[in-house]
Amino acid sequence: MNVTTTRKDPIPMTEGLSIALVVLTLILVVGAVMKFAGTARANRDKAAQARRFSPEARPGEWSLILDGTGAKKIQVIKELRDITGLGLAEAKDLVDRTPSTVLSGVDHQSASAAYRILADVGAAVRITETAALPADAPAAVPGTFTIILDDAGPKKIYVIKEIRALNGTGLAEAKRLSEQVPSKILTGIDHPTAVAAHAILTRAGATARIFAA
Residue 191 in contact with residue 140, Cβ under 8 Å? Predict the structure, then answer.
């Protein structure tokens, strides 16, 4: 009995190479697209993070306020020393009596750079504008002065926040000062400092006055 075997012809070598090249090209193209998409996504994430930690530069003078150290207190103290040039005891004092002023009267770029450093190690920080003296403010007067708060006004929470930033008191003490008026917010300060503090409280909606000690 004759058995007839049908044998398929193998794919020509040139045709096989062409298919392999097409597949390889597709793999390379897909890989390049995925890599590009990943890079674009990473760039978007970095840009979003930069916008979060880098407020837009603005003219004027600014202050950096530390509201809390977070979980990495030792690292925050280290960064504070690098930013301010303070000794260990002074830097530790800043973190122990928050809110505390880390930088004052600096440009917005410097405040933003320090903001990023501290935020990156978990600290709670904010940038506030340093109150400029009014155009019609009187010339500096010699002597020492006291800031008296007569009324917290309608924005009591905001005023309490500014009181804490001005004198470094805790929440309970700042709340007491805002309620038991008239109260002394700052004492023994020079005239320019008194005028600036008065402007900050007034802008927050409070009624305050400068009293010559």
Answer: yes
